[in-house]
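ARCHIVE CARD
Drawer: 12
Card no.: 0347
Subject: one protein chain, sequence and derived structure
Cross-reference: see card 0346
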Amino acid sequence: MEFEPKIMAFCCQFCAYSAADLAGSMRLQYPPNVRIVRLLCTGKVDPLHLLRAFQEGWDGVFVAGCLEGECHFLAGNLHAKQWINYTKKLLKELGIEPERLEMFNMSAAMGTKFADTVKEMTERIKKLGPSPLRRDVKDSH
């Protein structure tokens, strides 16, 4: 049986979450293995949220926010990008591939971009394999 990664997506409600909704309305096909956490702004994400997702066994995590320079809260997505880069360094120090975490920017009108983002992350995580912290895959072997 092929490994199906579990991916968590932290999405801002104004852009990325709306893009996900649009992808659904457009009936775009993308892997069903992503779970979306809607945020008021990606600026609310901090390393503890991201690390907790990995601790709970998620194979990959992405944060999706407004296009750079177009954040509804001025610079929230720029703050999120800084936290992503910081958290990637922490993951590397913990022995977890930093490629399991990524930041994407999109507008509410980019339903196709959202679907492509989920496909990209799914393929990336499939190549990396299950997270070293994921218990259900380890126990089944």
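Annotation on reverse: The chain has a mean pLDDT of 94. The longest strand covers residues 7-12.
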